[in-house]
């Protein structure tokens, strides 16, 4: 807590007739069309059911919600759209992979909590989807309960997210669509009341430190520099995206092809993102309908420039190297840098950074540090099924998901930091350039045999599957130290200073490489039974094997069973008005083999590949002789985490006017991945193992009310909400040494702090409460107590309305979360006069600090003796509750009759806003990120867009 700023095709659910949370609608048509289409639920691996016969808990977000949004990743667009899923962006940097996606709470303390992602029927390693064009997505489905997820077995412990892309339709004419969107993004403001130039100088003068302490009050009053550093580090980001798609279909074949381009400027200077995508989806069938086949290929290329902090946690609290602090912490009495490059800056100030930090940060965003990522992605698969008899079908889907990432990072030859480091080494040349390349190939093949037959009132479907998954992952890094500014160019391989044996530690290049092969194999069977469309039973049993565990624990069995009762089909429900009233229940298990949470762009299946093996690595021994040391003490007893979940739910549709569902679930994770203490005789004090139990339970509900539906006017309102309670039930040994701990009986990542009571009016010292309930001015770590508070919100959801009137439409989406807490590090820094004394900007609130003549102040004395002890108190622990207007869209649909003889079918024009207003008591940039500390926040921007959709 006391962190100090360093002063240096599977699983798709289609909702029709208002059944979904965000029911699909066609805004190009102002007249509602009633279609008697039975809802279909596709649960994975070609397993389908009608909505009425489904036993699973799942929610789908349709293309109407996802498309035409200014978000690079589809994950940004689903916040507040469905109960039971928490989707938060921890960074507003364009193309960032810092997302927090939780389905029904945290299912693990140390292992990965990411859901399994399935795109067009195949498992993918993606967790950011920056190279997947949201305009190509047809549905985004969240599978939540055991009956829905256990079919995916070994990787479904945290839920499953299934994405299906758009397809053509049989017997359809050529349709050409063009979409364009232009957006302008601005940064949100903080409520820290930061000091202007004269205020900061006054605080420094009163504190007795910093530049202001060297000035007289008259000199302060006459000071005329007051820099708005937000204008130096931030900007209004411009973005544009263009999408062109073609679809058509004959009697036995159809096709969808799309081309997309996007470019986006970040709200912090020097950050941006560009993307190109190409997709082709082909489907076909034989004339007799027995053979069905399809091919899918999606290509993507993206390039982004981002700050070093995005992947370098070492500079999270570094005011010299992290430009995220530039707009807030730069002293406002300092003018912007007058130097055009880092060499001129270094020649002027040398290594004196104390009062020149904002100039160094300016040099960084002006090219002193370059951090560029490129990503090439190829997702391709082919599928076919053949109906051997009227009752027996065989099928296969095989494909690859290939991603190649390259990061080029450089401290520029003329960058200030390069020159400062070189001066410290007495080197003529500074800087370095690093190339990091990762190749990630996922191969997935699923083969199935399905038997389906009706026996009078009985319908039985039995299927058997074989699921093979193989990962090939490789990474290499090369670094050149020493760059000649005369001919160095970023990424060009020029200007490298040759290695000199006389100075072996200065210009020595380096190289590293890694390679991992990983795989899983699963075989499973499913059973579906229906009686008179009233009662149903679904069951799954799956056997999974993973390379990650010792032979004795390599295989695990997962299972689920689901039951339903279609109450509306009973005779006593005739005339009730219920088009559907279904009670369902499920119980089952799934597993988690991903031993640790992955970082950006890392496939979780390749992490800790040999955790059960003893590993030895080379090191330097006695008298610098080469030797070997124990790198990992293996544990052959290491096993899967197991999640057991029960669910009971009710789905309803009353006259097509009121639709929704309610679910209650309990989820228990046993055999938690956790460190196990062992004897230190081997110099290793812990090993990877299993111990502990974690519980999640909660309630979810969604509701849509179609209030008005006539030819000219449609109005519907919707809401969804979810409650989740998280508790650690057991653990072999607690570690309660930190300010954020996992304690038995409490939530995961619980704050452990002592209470802050305010200011002693007698002397301006801070007051705290010790462990015995006594007031103290000198608390210790032993005075901390468990607060029951964590960063994870207990309540999440969204609400809004949709209005259509004679072609005009107005759609809104609000999102909310409640019950989480974040320690606001940035606020603690700007309320600390110590930083003012080190020429860092602070809040003007400090002008109202305690003095002998201002004894009623609620802020301690600028020179309080116990300053700094508040770091392990709850003084800066705040709620992260918010209600956010996530999206609002206003537009008009031109009908074909209005367009007359124009060669277009329809035109839609609209204006929309994203993240436009947030109601919250949080003082910082953004309460959305779910994190214990508000370190290193790239704000999620406010975005206003104008766009058009044209169909030819």
Summary, kept brief:
This protein is 8% helix and 46% strand. The chain has 952 residues and is mainly beta. Pfam families: Plug, TonB_dep_Rec_b-barrel.
SSE topology sketch:
Layout lengths: L11 E2 L26 E5 L2 E4 L7 E5 H4 L18 E5 L9 E5 L12 E4 L2 E3 L12 E7 L2 H4 L10 E6 L6 E15 L10 H11 L9 H5 L8 H4 L3 E13 L3 E13 L6 E14 L5 E15 L20 H4 L12 H8 L7 H12 E19 L4 E20 L4 H10 L6 E24 L2 E24 L28 E22 L3 E12 L8 E12 L11 E15 L22 E6 L5 E7 L8 E14 L3 E13 L2 E5 L8 E5 L2 E17 L3 E18 L9 E2 L8 E4 L2 E4 L6 E4 L5 E2 L8 E6 L4 E11 L2 E11 L2 E3 L1 H6 L2 H4 L40 E3 L2 E13 L1 H4 L6 E14 L22 E10 L1
Parallel strand pairs: 7-10
Antiparallel strand pairs: 1-2, 2-3, 4-9, 5-6, 7-8, 9-10, 11-12, 11-44, 12-13, 13-14, 14-15, 15-16, 16-17, 17-18, 18-19, 19-20, 20-21, 21-22, 22-23, 23-26, 24-25, 26-27, 27-30, 28-29, 30-31, 31-38, 32-33, 33-37, 34-35, 35-36, 38-39, 39-42, 40-41, 42-43, 43-44
Helix pairs in contact: 7-9
What does this structure look like?
By secondary structure, the chain is mainly β. 8% of the residues lie in helices and 46% in strands. The protein contains twelve helices and 44 strands. Helix 7 (342-349) crosses helix 9. The longest helix is centred in the middle third of the chain and has 12 residues, at 357-368. The two termini are 58 Å apart. The model is unreliable at 6-37 (pLDDT under 50).
